[in-house]
Amino acid sequence: MQVVDLRSDTITKPTLKMREVMAQAEVGDDVYGEDPTVNRLENMAAELVGKEAALFVPSGTMGNQLAVMTHTQPGDEIILGQESHIFYYEVGGFAKLSGVQARTLDDSIGIFSGDDLKSVIRDDNIHYPKTGLICLENTHNRAGGVAITKEKTDMICKVAQKNNIPIHLDGARLFNAVIQLDIEVKELVKNVDSVMFCLSKGLAAPVGSILAGSKEFIEQARKNRKMLGGGMRQSGIIAAAGLIALDERVEELQVDHDLANRLAKGIKEAGLKAIDIKEVNTNFVILEVDEDVYTTDEVLEILAEHGVKMTYFGSGLIRAVTHKDLSVGDIDYVIEVMNGELLV
Ligand SMILES: *Cc1c(COP(=O)(O)O)cnc(C)c1O
């Protein structure tokens, strides 16, 4: 049976070129700072995003948690979206690892407003915790992969700067935003203090993310990474794939976005009774299920019977994510399956 896996871009496998450079990578002990391939990746990443320094970390989650830990003190309050990955999907790590509490804002459209932000920043009242950090996300996962513009980002950064509060950007899919917005990554992240992006996901490296920021911030984050057990040794083996991800995969994300649009267009044109397109952003397609016809679980089951895998995204909603390991033929097969007798 043909299998078309649209659950996430995390399932992408490394390219042949990645596997070749991994086999040949020059390595050393990175805890001593002696892995030339890791050093090359960190330098390249820092330069690319226009920050002084960068740190190679095992996962996006560790990158975000290190950012929270390094920017804040225990007892601080952090401001972040109620739908943000750091709040929603990181196992409460900020509370346990950094001892901070969260103040959440409505980010159902991908970002909160400057006015909402202003209304929750703490002043120095003796009863209050200190506002230690503000977090943004781009592209925004739970808002359906939406790319947040530079204008919207800078509006929040301006409020943060005025109040002397650092800003961290969770850019797990930062380069999807960069491609969608047709902007230099440096420009997009210019006014945030730190940024994390994943080399895995759409960029297809097998493992790894980058945390970037000032030299001083990264020095402290490196120490915190060691504390968490994320100090790696001959990690040049995996950093090598990250170099290829940045060199060769960024521009290719447009292909993923084109596939998302093809899928959305095909489903729309099929005129299905039970399924409509809610939105298509970057490499995400959000489907809306008319639950009077089929439940969301029934649709997922029917698709699975035909080898098509998608994700439950809340009541009446299904998420499909396009990525490099899909072809135009795969997308057309999904449309064909939906168009079949089961879903008409
Ligand atoms: C996937 C993701 C992460 C975490 O990355 P992992 O490498 O899976 O830990 C963080 N933020 C967002 C928005 C994500 O989509």
UniProtKB/TrEMBL annotation:
The keyword tRNA-binding does not apply. Keywords: Lyase, Pyridoxal phosphate. Residues 5-288 form the Aromatic amino acid beta-eliminating lyase/threonine aldolase domain. SUPFAM superfamilies: PLP-dependent transferases. The modification N6-(pyridoxal phosphate)lysine is found at K201. Its cofactor is pyridoxal 5'-phosphate. One of its GO terms (cellular component) is cytosol. One of its GO terms (molecular function) is L-allo-threonine aldolase activity. Gene3D superfamilies: Aspartate Aminotransferase, domain 1, Type I PLP-dependent aspartate aminotransferase-like (Major domain). One of its GO terms (biological process) is glycine biosynthetic process. It holds the Pfam family Beta_elim_lyase. The keyword Nucleotide-binding does not apply. Belongs to the threonine aldolase family. This is L-threonine aldolase. It comes from Selenihalanaerobacter shriftii. The lineage of its organism: Bacteria, Bacillati, Bacillota, Clostridia, Halanaerobiales.
